[in-house]
Specification:
The structure is a homotetramer of 373-residue chains. Chain A is of the alpha/beta class. Chain A is 31% helix and 26% strand. In chain A, strands 16-15-14-13-7-12-11-8-17 form a 9-stranded mixed beta sheet. In chain A, helix 1 links the parallel strand 1 and strand 2. Chains A, B, C, D: Pfam families: GFO_IDH_MocA, GFO_IDH_MocA_C3.
């Protein structure tokens, strides 16, 4: 019988569901993994918790997430609640000796993230934060190509994460634009591309940013004529310098009409270049310098068995992974780190590093000057 | 407690694994579905069966698939063995009153498929065949647009399924090229695009085909200098006429160097056109006739919540489904048909219809003339 | 002073204009070329002829093309009139010792084309036919890669030329659908892709074709309720065998809603593959077999100085040629052939070969059987 | 006889040749235009001047550009020399009452550009500067859609011009990196995307920029071990604010390995979005907000007769313009402005505006702060 690990999930929304689904899928795709046992699910709504338990096979449902802390069957707690609740829940879970997975952004501020990270490192629990897109096999390839020097010395990075779900000015004021929730396009989606830039290129040492609120007011409720001022950014633009010496630009934009998932980057090096778009995330474009000009160009690499852990999902190239598969890889790596004591990524420390860049960008924009981290 | 349905899977290869994974995923994505209970897995190899049971959580493993027939806990049997075994297994399962899912091609010949279909229809069991690609939400959209008349009268179809996994002439002679297994590019992958053409446009009434063997001999074993003659096609080209009045072309090719999953079609109608490629299967290209010329063109529709059942997997557009998700939809629809008595698709009858076209193409090629079905 | 060659153009429509423009552009792009002197332009309409003379700088205009025959200043005659007039004009021009450029299709039938070819070869005048698309630098590269063996043994060809300019059933009956003009989608645009297949792969030895008339009647005049039966094809599909041993498919379609210039092909060989689309004709997709799987894929080659004669137009890669530039290359090669006695391509012999395939396809479709050429 | 206008070109390099070619092509494509008479060509090299005269049909060649000033047959002077010479030549030509076309960048500094602009406006001569890419019919469409409000209120702009021709650190120190020539990636190619942003969205009011030299030294001569420090930028990144209220980012990069012509932008508005890439410059991607979600997406508009002046080059859609055609449109518009007294674009004033942004970016980068224009 495969050994198990007890898992509890707090929250049953988009991400709560994605976590449950991913934990269930881990043993299928990763046969040597500990098998996540879905011990408990917590939600403020009793109906929500019950329904999630039923759908995903959690053994019990609760409206009191604190009951998970004392449950000896729970070794892992996944936090998928709004950002403003992360700190309290994570600190409690860590104090109870649980390994913690927390959705991104980990906290509304770098200070909170730092406190959470310190607690986790002191307690020596394993942590992970939900930057799922970097779990993509072709992005592991991208990172490896950069790290191995196949692209030569990196000279430039261009990244963007643009969607349109907040483009409509009539979307009411809510948690998405509440600064207490780590809100704003940069904090909510921009941290994906900020994290991706770190994943690929390492530490950022300087930020020069401008944040902008396009929809300056929003109705207090759907259809209401009363409007409330929005203080967080709809668009953020950053010019960044990496410790390795190169520089780059990053944009976050949740008001980009027509865009559903424009999470893209281009990396240029002295020996090659890579281009990626989450809109076609089973592909990576690669230019290798020095080839015969008559047949040179960007090569469209399709994800396949040569790109671990693609093969854990399907043995044949061209079949493609979906978003939920990325989440499954994320959970499998998290559990492997718990079992084997290997480092996980991105952990709370990494999330804090990302949040530091977000915070620095907000300050840079407000102060009108470059910020050195 | 959600009601369950007992499932057994025969075979633990690429597709056996895909079935197990899909059955497990059904209740997550389709919360109102009966929950598949993985009762048993059968494989000729005891180790294979045991391992599959362990990985996927089947309650028992067996090397004797016939033991599934008497098991009252098994209501559904999935057959994922080589094609030459399908008939025997399916007939036995049907005789035992089981609902049957069978991988494609259902049988090496239309005659066999017909026998299987008749048995299933007489026994009134529910059947389904693994044409997974048409479970794609954007292909459901395509079919709906054609059926509703949004494309006007259809004038032309162009379809292809090309891969390269048999391009290398040094791949040894094996079951893939053994005529007993429904072998050949047309029978093995071409039936996907044949089935897709029927899914979109309905019945085919005439076939004019040419089949060709590119790699005329293969080594009898890896590296062997002894070679055996290959009698099945590497490339098949069909010109087809549809009952609805339009015509089209279809190509199957498993020696198309560089292609991993070129399953593509273009449909032209008097009011619009659609283009699809499995290489980017979360997209559908749509041209709507009659628009202002200055802003007309093909529109790249990205799969999203407007395309059921995309939302069962993720609530946000642009996140993308993967191959395994298509398989999950397939299984969910199969189980829904069992529960509700609704028609399923593609069932054994449909698989027989597809096989009839394959057989007609083989005859057309051999006889050098058009065949009317 | 650069030496000149006297040119006359018959016809002032789309192609007449394109010829005039191209002749004028030749010396700019090809500085070592004879300079075409635009001696005369002929058109049935006096106004048309006068206007063309004015626009393009022809020294004289005439409504009687026969006056060109005796003009000692005219060494080259370009025929851009409707197809049904080509034979008479070409034979007269040849008889007068002129070098002849004729637009495609060269004649409504292979028999006519043969007569024209024989006359030209006997008279030893230089001929060329307007298959302009193959003058593309990246297609010269494609041909070279195939000829040199870089793609290995060719196994498969798939070609299409689809546009939508005849999709509307209310376009009146006119010369485009008059069989006397070499009409039909295959004869009018399909010959481009037929010619391209020969350009790349050489002689075709067998044809199995089905032609279809989608719009079976057309109004006799715009808006008229009286309709006339259309006897030529809107769609033609061919399965062809090449002398070199491989086979392929070809489609011509002028009723493909939404398509403006879908002139495309894919060529597969044992060592690589090429894909091309005229919709993006400054690019060629190339897959090279045998590479490291983790970084293999189709490479998008952009036209540049490595692809002669691209550099004659602009010295920097990525700038792109336009359609008129292809026509300029065509004329430059024609003139070079006249000056240096080198072979030109495609000449009347090649046009006859193409027409033979078209004729064979028509017969194959009518007879319901494969035709050996 | 069509009326003529006498033209002289100074310089016979890449752009001198492009100008000559374009002037010659104007009357073909624009039959109502004055016909440019190629009166004279000047080059420091006598051989160069003679050869250009021969190739392009200039009536005379000279090594002394000042002789053009007194030539009453010359009404227009095109300046295609290195940037450091533009000011002197343009001022002299203006003083002589000539209309002046000058290649971009117009001058190494905004101050020089201002002086040139003032002189031209005082003398009331017509001026134009070679920002050829915006002459693209689909960019005229883009501008029109923005101006007409079809995209709603514009919220965001993202632009880049990246090439790789200076990526190699062994390219010797030369005029391209000499600050006297308006050198640097921003000044040399970045001004194209800066100008495009103004063409589409109007005036820029604030710039926050960071410029970077990737290749900090270059050999003094090919292969030399002696190296000289490079002071101009290889990469420039700008965050800009437009007078209309929206903001955007701009990148210039001439060290982007693999890129030949990545001149791209994306514009987002409340009612739609546009994306463009010079790599496929006969296309424009358009998203129209408010459509039915199930069929919405970005539409690929192909250049055609609906996009003036496309039809001046070829009457059928999908045929595509090339780079030299853009240059022809540029010259035709310049000549039309001379003939009809209509405004031309971009004139010296516009070039000065562009140069002001370039200068502001350089200052912003040096000072580490945002610059208000």
């Amino acid at each position: 019988m495969r050994r198990e690990i007890g898992v509890a999930v707090i929250g049953t929304g988009f991400m709560g569901r994605a976590h449950a689904l991913a934990y269930r899928a881990v043993p299928n795709a990763f046969p040597n993994s500990l098998r996540p046992r879905l011990v408990a699910v917590a939600d403020v709504s009793e109906a929500g918790a019950q329904q999630a338990a039923e759908h995903f096979g959690f053994e019990r449902a609760t409206t009191d997430w604190r009951t998970l802390l004392d449950d000896p069957g729970v070794q892992v707690i996944s936090i998928t609640t709004p950002c403003s609740l992360h700190r309290e829940m994570a600190l409690a879970a860590i104090a109870a000796g649980k390994h913690v997975h927390c959705e991104k952004p980990i906290a509304p501020s770098a200070a909170d993230a730092f406190e959470m990270m310190e607690a986790a490192e002191t307690a020596k629990v394993v942590t992970q934060v939900g930057y799922n897109y970097i779990k993509n096999p072709v992005l592991k390839l991208a990172r490896e190509m950069i790290a191995s020097g196949e692209l030569g010395e990196i000279t430039s990075f261009r990244g963007v994460h643009a969607e349109d779900y907040m483009a409509d000015p009539e979307i009411p004021y809510g948690w998405r634009v509440d600064p207490q929730n780590g809100a704003g396009a940069l904090a909510e989606i921009g941290n994906h591309i900020v994290g991706m830039s770190r994943f690929l290129l390492g530490a950022v040492t300087q930020v020069n940013a401008q944040l902008e609120t396009v929809n300056k007011t929003r109705p207090v409720a759907p259809g209401s004529s009363e409007r409330r001022e929005v203080k967080v950014d709809d668009i953020a633009r950053l010019m960044v310098t990496f410790e390795r010496g190169c520089s780059g630009s990053i944009e976050a934009n949740w008001a980009a009409t027509g865009r559903k998932m424009q999470l893209e980057f281009e990396v240029y090096g002295t020996k090659g270049a890579l281009c990626f778009s989450q809109e076609r995330f089973n592909e990576l474009q690669y230019f290798k310098a020095g080839g015969e000009p008559r047949t040179s160009g960007f090569t469209r690499i399709e994800a396949g068995p040569a790109h671990p852990p693609y093969e854990n999902f399907t043995v044949a190239g061209g079949h493609q992974l979906g978003f939920n598969d990325l989440k499954t890889i994320e959970m499998a790596e998290f559990i492997a780190a718990i079992e084997h004591g290997t480092p996980t990524f991105p952990d709370f420390r990494e999330a804090w590093e990302i949040q530091r860049i977000v915070d620095a960008a907000i300050r840079s924009s407000a102060q009108g000057q470059r910020i050195t981290l």
